[in-house]
Amino acid sequence: MHRAGWVRKLDFLGRIVLPMDIRRGLGIEKQDDLEFSLQEQGIILIQIVKKQCRLCGSNHSLMPYRDSFVCIPCIRELKAV
Ligand SMILES: [Zn+2]
């Protein structure tokens, strides 16, 4: 990202569009979950990292692996190879 201080107008339903530079810079995709947090300084928008297995997409029995997650069944499959 090369710039801070984007100004966006709320539409008639109270929605805003995140600037493309921000979305691309943070890897935010359509339908991603974001969390609004109210702070003294204003509103902070937090990107929620989806926890799912990098190999099969499951969100159960996850173990952290580098910058993502792998589920235990996939780990067992890999060990059997
Ligand atoms: Zn898996």
How would the blueprint of this fold be written?
Layout: H1 20-26, E1 34-39, E2 42-47, E3 62-65, E4 68-71, H2 72-80
Antiparallel strand pairs: 1-2, 3-4
The structure holds zinc ion.
Zinc ion (ZN) binds at residues 53, 55-56, 58, 70-71, 73-74.
In the CATH scheme, what's the topology name of the largest domain?
A: Pemi-like Protein 1, Chain: D
Taken from the alpha-carbon principal axes, the silhouette is: elongated
Total E-strand runs:
4
CATH architecture of the largest domain: Ribbon
User: Roughly what percent helix?
Assistant: 10-25%
Q: Into which percentage range does the β-strand content fall? A: 15-25%
CA radius of gyration: 18 Å
- Which whole number gives the mean pLDDT? 88
CATH top level label of the largest domain: Mainly Beta
Q: How would you characterize the largest beta sheet?
A: 2 strands, antiparallel
**Unreliable stretches covering 5 or more consecutive residues:** none
Strand order of the largest sheet: 1-2
What would your notes on this structure say?
The protein is of the alpha+beta class and 81 residues long. The protein folds into 2 domains: 1-49, Pemi-like Protein 1, Chain: D (Ribbon); 50-81, no CATH class. It is built from 2 helices and 4 strands. The strands form 2 sheets. Strands 1-2 form a two-stranded antiparallel sheet. Strands 3-4 form a two-stranded antiparallel ribbon. It is elongated. Bound molecules: zinc ion (ZN). Zinc ion binds next to β4 and α2. This is SpoVT-AbrB domain-containing protein. It comes from Paenibacillus terrae.
